[in-house]
Amino acid sequence: MTQSTSVKAPREPWRDPAAKPFVHIDNVTKVFDNTYAVDGVTLDIYQGEFFCLLGGSGCGKSTLLRMLAGLEQPTSGRILIDGADMTRVPPYARPVNMMFQSYALFPHMTVEQNVAFGLKQQKLGKGEIRDRVAGLLELVRMMPFARRKPEQLSGGQRQRVALIRSLARQPKLLLLDEPLAALDKKLREHTQFELVNIQERVGTTFIMVTHDQEEAMTVSTRIAVMEAGRIEQVGTPTSVYEYPASRHVAEFIGAVNSIEGRVVEQEGERLLIRSESLGCDLVMAHKQPLPEGTPVTVAVRPEKLLASGQAPAGSYNTVKGVITDFAYLGDVSIYLVRLPTGQQMRVQLTNLARLTENPLTWDQEVYLSWLPDSGVVFAS
Amino acid sequence: MNPQAAINGSARSAGEWLGNLLTGHHGRRLVIALPYLWLFVFFILPFVIVLKISLAEVLLARPPYSPLWQFLEDSTLQIQLHLENYRRLWEDPLYLISYLKSLKIAGISTLVCLLLGYPMAYAIARTRDTLRNFLLMLVILPFWTSFLIRVYAWIGILKSNGLLNNLLLSLGVIDHPLPLLHTDFAVYLGIVYSYLPFMVLPLYATLSRMDLTLLEAAADLGCRPWKAFLRITLPLSLPGIIAGCMLVFIPAVGEFVIPDLLGGPDSLMIGKVLWTEFFSNRDWPAASAVAVVMLVLLVVPLALFQRAQEKSESETPR
Fold first, then answer.
1. Does the bond joining B63 to the residue before it have cis omega, within 30 degrees of 0?
2. Band of the pLDDT at A203, cuts 50, 70, 90?
3. Residue A284, SS3?
4. Residue B87, Cα to own-chain centre: how many angstroms?
5. How far apart are CA A176 and CA A180, in angstroms?
């Protein structure tokens, strides 16, 4: 395999205020029958990114993608791709290609003809089309299946054909609508890495829509979390996971323990919170000033909690509870702990040592504790 | 063996037999046998009878044709195959002309039906749900009236002092009535009018089943709408086009009522010739020969076509 010789785009162009965005979505709104599918979205995506639009069903992520492809017209706002206004340009005239969730392979054409379809529209020579189709089939190891019809392929093979068909015209921007949704779990995980590989080799900017947060975190440079037609947060997988901007983002990305409470006092960047539902006081790190009495939600990830049979030192950020359920997943174990107040906490422990029996089990009393900067505080 | 065991045994074997009948080879044969039986009783058997009559000679008797075989007194079986009828079909140009005329009228009518029906079916398939059912209803509505009455109605519209001529006269478009009725034009009009739903419905069925994301994919890959129609929609609707064309062409070739009522003296279609042979001339053998040749001319090309299509479909390279 030859090493890619293309010059890599700067690692984090979004941090550079001078960087020119490749895709500029400017206050785009789409209204269907009086409902806002996409509501005032502004977004910049840079050259060479693998960008993910993440959200539940009906959050507007697919509509946004279809507007980038030209399959839907924005009700208002503008879309610029590589500096050119694409808002009213029909799909067949855009330097953009899309991989459809259903793959949309033409059933009456062979694999080869499907891949060549876009190239034929460009009026390329026969020889060139043949060479480029062969190269693409080679890229995803589909050469032996070139003359098959889509119905004779497995799900994974169809997915690869759909991918190379959308790459065939060497688009400036590739849009992927839930490209892995139809694959089984094992194949999906494998394909995620393959997608990243292909993206790095061809160097095209990818924008992918998914509802699967793990998938988004695996493949993307940045993630935009969408909810009800709006973007809630844009950031790298790490920042979205560790520093969620809202309770919704925290709960959508990964599991989280949400604790309700009130601010008692703030000392510099330390916040003292009293929580009835937890039955103890919390000390959390928080930079923005919050007045006394503000109702807040503290979000702590299950893997940030420590569990032990002995009471830890200190009186803050420590609760006692009973294990009501646990699941041994091999690499990690997940425990559900019920506190005397009735609140349930989710704890994830890494199984570092090889044990035949779990040290913690049902009905056992455990102490849970966490560090002040291992959670996020949202004013409710 | 005690009696109880014997009863149990026979009950079990009866159950097994029934189970085998429904699930095993017998069951499968039984299921396939029904349509074959239907075809045999209502298609093969009548065809054989017609074939038999076509090889007979006209007699003034009842039935009005000679028997195919008879026992003579010296206990010999005499089989007489009269090929005279078929020879006459070939030698009398009337038959050839009316065959060709039938094929021409049916072919052109099918083409007109396709050209009219495709846009109709396309529009119905792509319109919004509420309107779609209404439009489909309009296509099917004529079937609520008898076919014969609808063809008679055209006489009222097309005749010299009929609706159409009176309308054109009163508008001042024409000075004297146009000869519309009893022309080939009237036959084409009648056939296209009567068979259009048979073209629209199968086309609608294939077009409405089409996955519209395929057109989005084509547009995304740089294909303009008109070209996407030619390269995606049209090839994918080919089964509907073939079905619709067969449903129009086959009955149109043998059409008798429309040329009889609307056509003129030279709108001589084979169905009318057959009718004349049968009822006016009382020449059953000649009528049967016409029918046999018509069937062979229609069925053989269709069977070959279907065979070729099945072959091309199963013959996909591995």
1. yes
2. confident
3. strand
4. 27
5. 9
Over range B20-44, report the average pLDDT: 79
- Nearest CB partner across the interface for B219, out of A92, A105, A122: A92
Beta carbons within 10 angstroms of residue A265's beta carbon:
12
Q: CA B248, B253, B259, B263 torsion: positive or negative?
A: positive
ipTM: 0.83
Of A100, A107, A169, the CB nearest to B222: A169
Cα first-last separation, chain B = 59
Q: Which amino acid, A312? A: P
Residue listed under structure tokens 């005749």 = B159
What tokens were used for A182? 């139809």
Look at A201-205, A313-317, B144-148 and tell me which has the smallest mean pLDDT. A313-317
Q: CATH code for A13-250?
A: 3.40.50.300
CA-based nearest distance B223→chain A, Å: 6
Query: Residue A106 and residue B213: Cβ atoms within 8 Å?
Result: no
H or E stretch including A332? strand A332-338
d(CA A349, CA A43): 37
Residue A171 has pLDDT above 70, yes or no: yes
| Helix, strand, coil % over all residues of chain A, rounded to 5 | 25, 35, 40
Is the CATH number 1.10.10.10 carried by domain A255-379?
Answer: no
Q: Is residue A324 within 8 Å of A336, Cβ to Cβ?
A: yes
What part of B 209-228 touches A (C-beta under 8 Å)?
211, 213-214, 216-224, 227
For chain A, the domains span 13-250, 255-379
How far is the C-alpha of B267 from the C-alpha of A47, rounded, in Å? 72
Residue B17: pLDDT band with limits 50, 70, 90: low
Structure tokens given for A161: 């054909």
Cα–Cα distance measured from residue A377 to residue A243, given in angstroms and rounded to the nearest whole number: 10
User: Nearest residue on chain A to B224, judged by CA atoms?
Assistant: A92
CATH 3.30.300.130 holds for B92-282 = no
